[in-house]
Amino acid sequence: MKILLTAEQLAEGISRLAQRVRDDVGRRPITVVGVLTGSIVLVSDLIRRLEGPVRVSMVWASSYRGATTTPGRLELRLDLLPDLAGQEVLLVDDIFDTGRTMEALVKELRCRGAKQVRSLVLLRKQGRSEVEIKPDFVGFDIPDAFAVGYGLDYNGAWRHLPYLAELEPADIHEERDSQIDSDGDSGT
Ligand code: IMP
Ligand code: MG
């Protein structure tokens, strides 16, 4: 795997993002809405740098199917959301690729009476957007490659890496072999 962003670079980027959010929202309470599962590491680091009152909630979105790196049909689950009426909402996702996930979620959250919905992503892939909306806060622009680590996965693997890496073909083979081993059905 090729390292795209080290743990130190990510930490600096998140501090910058937190500062920009507070410059914009001021000391008012922020309701952070993280997008499961990719944003878990980002949300936990970001909320600890957002000085001032913060509430946290999660929604779930998925547009990937198993062992592919191309988006499929978007599925959303919003049933864990608290009442958002009058809230300053900050929607937090790991990456803005086509933008379809963020577009759909911003629309859903606006319908729930939030005072304002801002969007934040750690990463934005260059030249991939298919939507009109732009995230309000972007940590890093990255090349159009499949990224893993710091919450981002390939087929469920590598979310735990403390850095961000570019997935290479050899890594896909390694991940597939480990799946077969752990399923215990590699016995040919
Ligand atoms: P979008 O709807 O195309 O913008 O896709 C956003 C979602 O797809 C993110 O929340 C991620 O879960 C996933 N995704 C997009 N690109 C990558 C990637 O390079 N690595 C891992 N997940 C990705
Ligand atoms: Mg996601």
The largest pleated sheet is described as: 6 strands, mixed
Structural class by SSE content = alpha/beta
**Small molecules bound in the structure, each named once:** inosinic acid, magnesium ion
CATH topology: Rossmann fold
Helix content: 25-40%
Estimate the mean pLDDT confidence.
Answer: 92
Briefly summarize what is shown.
The chain has 188 residues and is an alpha/beta fold. It has helices at residues 7-25, 40-47, 100-111, 169-183; strands at 2-5, 30-36, 54-62, 75-77, 88-96, 116-125, 137-142, 147-148, 164-166.
Account of the 3D structure:
There is one protein chain. The chain has helices at residues 7-25, 40-47, 100-111, 169-183; strands at residues 2-5, 30-36, 54-62, 75-77, 88-96, 116-125, 137-142, 147-148, 164-166. It has 188 residues and is α/β, with parallel strands linked by helices. It has one domain (2-185): Rossmann fold. Helix 1 (7-25) packs across helix 2. The protein is globular. It starts with a strand and ends in a 5-residue tail after the last helix. The model is unreliable at 183-188 (pLDDT under 50). It binds inosinic acid and magnesium ion.
Question: Main attributes?
Answer:
188 residues; alpha/beta; Rossmann fold; 3-stranded antiparallel beta sheet; disordered C terminus; binds inosinic acid; binds magnesium ion
Topology:
Elements: E1 2-5, H1 7-25, E2 30-36, H2 40-47, E3 54-62, E4 75-77, E5 88-96, H3 100-111, E6 116-125, E7 137-142, E8 147-148, E9 164-166, H4 169-183
The structure holds inosinic acid and magnesium ion.
